[in-house]
Amino acid sequence: MTKQDLTQEEIQARAQEAFRNHLKHLSGGDAEAWMNLWQEDGVLEFPYGPPGFPAFKKGKADLFEHAQYFLKSFEVQFTDLVFHLTIDPELVVAEFKSVGKHRETGNSYDQAYINVVQTKDGLIARYRDYWNPLVVIESFGSVNDAVPVSEK
Fold it and tell me: Is the pLDDT of residue 151 over 90?
């Protein structure tokens, strides 16, 4: 179905479903299914990453590596998902939380997120991931240990 065949509500529902699936696949440990939610040249941005953390990951190869490292590092469940309505039906603005831990240190990874996600034809094109870098650092145990999450 093309975008022209869908109502604004159907386009919005498709965008929100892509986001829900993003959370489902990350919490379920399925990097492969997670990758299928992205446009080929998709961009994942980290505006609040700690020092040394990259500003973004671009393209499926980089995104897949990042997802694998995230899944290797964290065991999480996502909760309290709230969508905020937007004028653009392909734009998702979501607030949610993670409850979990770092797999190696056992330290808590309880994070609050705000995400701004642009979809195109039901796939994620640009994802701005706003989270507290101090939670990441504390989960890893130090800023030096946290930075490699972005380099692998």
Answer: no
User: Are 109 and 48 within 8 A, CB to CB?
Assistant: no
End-to-end CA distance of the chain: 37
**What are phi and psi for residue 109, nearest 5 degrees?**
-130, 75
Return the pLDDT at 152.
41
State how far the Cα of 128 lies from the Cα of 44, in Å rounded to an integer.
Answer: 6
The model carries a pTM of 0.90
Which structural domain, as residue segments, surrounds residue 84? 3-150
Whole-angstrom Cα distance, residue 91 to residue 120? Answer: 9
Q: What is the CATH number of the domain that holds 78?
A: 3.10.450.50
The total domain count for the chain is: 1
Does residue 51 or residue 104 have the better pLDDT? 104
